[in-house]
Design brief:
With 186 residues, the protein is of the alpha/beta class. The protein has a single domain, classed as Rossmann fold. The chain has a six-stranded mixed β-sheet with strand order 5-4-3-6-7-8, sandwiched between helices. A three-stranded antiparallel β-sheet has the order 1-2-9. Strand 1 and strand 2 form a beta hairpin. It is globular. The termini are far apart. The structure holds zinc ion. Zinc ion binds next to helix 6. Keywords: Glycosyltransferase, Magnesium, Pyrimidine biosynthesis, Transferase. Its EC number is 2.4.2.10. It catalyses: orotidine 5'-phosphate + diphosphate = orotate + 5-phospho-alpha-D-ribose 1-diphosphate. Belongs to the purine/pyrimidine phosphoribosyltransferase family. PyrE subfamily.
């Protein structure tokens, strides 16, 4: 069995420091999911582990949000031999554009790379419900949520690490004077 945490540290998926998150909160740990996408030899066994959790379940389609989630959705759908659909950002949430059709009552597995607050997954679930399809379960590679979000359907994560986030005003790393970095693509 692979030591996921050790591998994540070695290839730079887990970064330690002082980070400004999208939410505006500060954290001592950042997950750079693109280090995993960069190394398919490490990523593929994790995608397969995620997919194997849902083997034999009555899933019709696998859905993921852009950007990283669409890669996970494609890979999990490939392993499970299901359809793959991608939810893109639109005003007020997410939607399945580009002609992805959803049938009423089809069971949809929602996947994503990193779960922090669960906002992207919630947007995908809302989009599925708008088409009267059925959000069946959620599968993520990394669950780094402080408090595991309740999606109203089962959640499975390949790797979970509870990470505490801080408001800037009571961030212990700010108090120690550790330089703040803004990771990610922006
Ligand atoms: Zn701070």
């Amino acid at each position: 069995m692979i030591d996921i945490e050790k591998m994540f540290k070695e290839i730079g998926v887990i970064k330690e420091g002082h980070f400004l998150l999208h939410s505006g909160l500060h954290s001592g740990i950042y997950f750079e999911k693109f280090r995993l996408i960069e190394h398919p030899e490490y990523a593929i066994p994790l995608f397969e582990l995620l997919a194997s959790q849902f083997e034999g379940e009555p899933i019709d389609t696998v859905a993921g949000p852009t950007t990283g989630g669409s890669i996970i959705a494609f890979e999990v759908a490939r392993v499970l031999r299901k359809r793959c659909i991608i939810a893109e950002k639109v005003e007020g949430g997410r939607d399945f554009l580009r002609g992805f059709g959803l049938k009423p009552d089809e069971n949809i597995l929602v996947v994503d790379d990193v779960l922090t607050t669960g906002a992207s997954v919630k947007d995908v679930i809302s989009a599925i419900k708008r088409y009267n399809a059925n959000p069946y379960a959620v599968g993520v590679l990394i669950d780094r949520s402080n408090e595991i979000p309740d999606f109203g359907i089962p959640l499975y994560s390949v790797y979970r690490k509870r990470v505490e986030n801080f408001n800037p005003e009571d961030c212990p790393l700010c108090k120690l004077g550790v330089p703040l970095t803004k990771p990610g693509g922006v």
